[in-house]
Design goal:
12% strand, binds NADP nicotinamide-adenine-dinucleotide phosphate, Rossmann fold, 10 helices, 7 strands, alpha/beta, globular
């Protein structure tokens, strides 16, 4: 099988964690990147590093688009970049995401709404903006879902529901676009060392999760890119979580719901 090559990727949430790993791995593979997140300073630092490490090489061709993807203005600016046919994007990675841990009734509803805007609405709008260009290039769409996509998760109710949307929607698009040359992949990581825990204000909970359950952001991003190269619909990065997803699919929902609820109650 010939290796699938991309020329220019747009990565959302590229300022830290899995998104920054995507950016570094793509640059190493000679893919130009467009980096999106709110933190212009952190994106600028990463862009400078990539340009220094890959001088005169496509991997050193890095654009920075600071944007808040929960706002109409941010979505419009990134959407305009995706529609730009002069420097076409042939790989869109919808990676930016956030969530909260706790009882729904105790959490700020504005934060829950932000999670829906960032994890659901932004990928939907950006994918729609990108698809004509992706179709013209035979490109790919990679959406970052989660292991939380596959069952309800008490104490992360809204986050898990947004990620269930991402996994379902991505796999449906994968089939809708079959035969068009565009592939759609959902990447479903388990616990991954990144800025996510701090952003979710969940350091205490995270400290009680045993080491073997944690993956590094580079291995997760690498698994996602390998899945895209193979045109896979769904990628679960580690064997531990693949076993969990299989077990969950064979178990009645009322059992997984209770089980996950029990585990998250003990962790919380
Ligand atoms: N870490 C895990 O255990 C885990 C597990 C499963 C799935 N995931 C998923 O993996 C993806 C990446 O998360 P991560 O773990 O790498 O966490 P992270 O280190 O916190 O990265 C999140 C990224 O999203 C960006 N972001 C947050 N709010 C944004 C907004 N309003 N507009 C634009 N960008 C925004 C952040 O940058 P700025 O703050 O600069 O905007 C950051 O670059 C997410 O979709 C997450 O749900 C993570």
């Amino acid at each position: 099988m010939t290796e699938r090559r991309f020329r220019r990727a747009l990565v959302t949430g590229a300022s830290s964690g899995i998104g920054a790993s995507f950016a570094r791995l793509l640059a190493d593979r000679g893919v130009a990147t467009v980096l999106v997140a709110r933190s212009a300073d952190r994106l600028g630092e990463l862009a400078t590093t990539l340009r220094t490490e890959h001088p005169g090489h496509p991997g050193g061709d890095v654009e920075v688009v600071p944007a808040d993807l929960t706002t109409a203005d941010g979505l419009e600016r990134v959407g305009a970049r995706l529609r730009d046919g002069d420097r076409p994007i042939d790989l869109l990675i919808n990676n930016a995401g956030a969530g909260q841990v706790g009882l729904f009734m105790d959490l700020d509803p504005d934060d829950a709404q932000t999670a829906v805007l960032l994890n659901v609405v932004a990928p939907l709008r950006l994918a729609h903006a990108a698809l004509p260009t992706l179709a013209a290039q035979g490109g790919a769409l990679l959406n970052v879902a989660s292991i939380a996509s596959f069952q309800p998760v008490p104490m992360m109710a809204t986050y898990a529901a947004t990620k269930a949307f991402v996994a379902s929607w991505s796999q449906a698009l994968h089939e809708e676009l079959r035969g068009t040359g565009v592939t759609v992949t959902a990447l479903a990581p388990g616990f991954t060392r990144s800025g996510f825990v701090d952003a979710a204000d969940a350091r205490d909970v995270a400290s009680r999760i045993p080491g073997p359950f944690w993956d590094g952001p580079d291995e997760v991003a690498r698994a996602g890119l390998d899945g895209v190269a193979r045109g896979r619909a769904l990628v679960v990065p580690s064997w531990l979580y693949r076993a969990g997803v299989t077990a969950s699919s064979l178990t009645p929902t009322f059992v997984t719901r209770r089980l996950v609820g029990e585990v998250t109650r003990r962790l919380g």
